[in-house]
Write a structure and sequence with these properties.
Layout: H1 2-27, H2 33-40, H3 44-56, H4 58-88, H5 96-104, H6 108-136
Helix pairs in contact: 1-3, 1-4, 3-4, 4-6
Length: about 140
């Protein structure tokens, strides 16, 4: 019984980055592209996945939660900068189609997906490297 309570408490600890992200979204970034997209597309599933992963293995759940938080923050800021740079390049002699395409194509989601995948991949490789080093010792 104590083990189950410990696992539940670990799962709740892994939810903290998601709670922080929700608070940050609601207070500061309501209109930011990625935060709005995630709010509209149920990032609750990532929240639930982090809890489930943490219930099984706390370290893996913590890595998942922190990777998600870092990737969202990084992608939003980098994506906004890239989008601002693209919009700054708009000129009056461009066609309406070009202007619409440049203004509406936001790279933030792709950046988030790539950063999240890279962070998780690095964590997996670090885990296996650490595990093989322990076996050799």
């Amino acid at each position: 019984m104590q083990s189950v309570l410990k696992r539940i408490s670990y799962s709740l600890i892994c939810v903290l980055p998601f709670a922080m992200l929700y608070i940050i979204t609601e207070i500061f970034f309501k209109d930011a592209y990625l935060f709005k997209w995630m709010r509209d597309h149920y990032y609750l599933f990532f929240f639930a996945a982090a809890m489930l992963i943490a219930f099984v293995n706390f370290k893996a759940g913590a890595v998942f939660s922190l990777s998600y938080f870092v990737s969202v923050m990084a992608a939003q800021f980098v994506g906004s900068a890239v989008q601002g740079h693209r919009i700054a390049k708009l000129t009056a002699d461009m066609s309406e189609g070009e202007i619409s395409r440049i203004a509406s194509s936001n790279p933030t989601f792709a950046i988030w997906l790539i950063v999240f995948a890279v962070l998780l991949t690095c964590a997996i490789f670090a885990f296996f490297k650490l595990r093989s080093a322990r076996k050799r010792a």
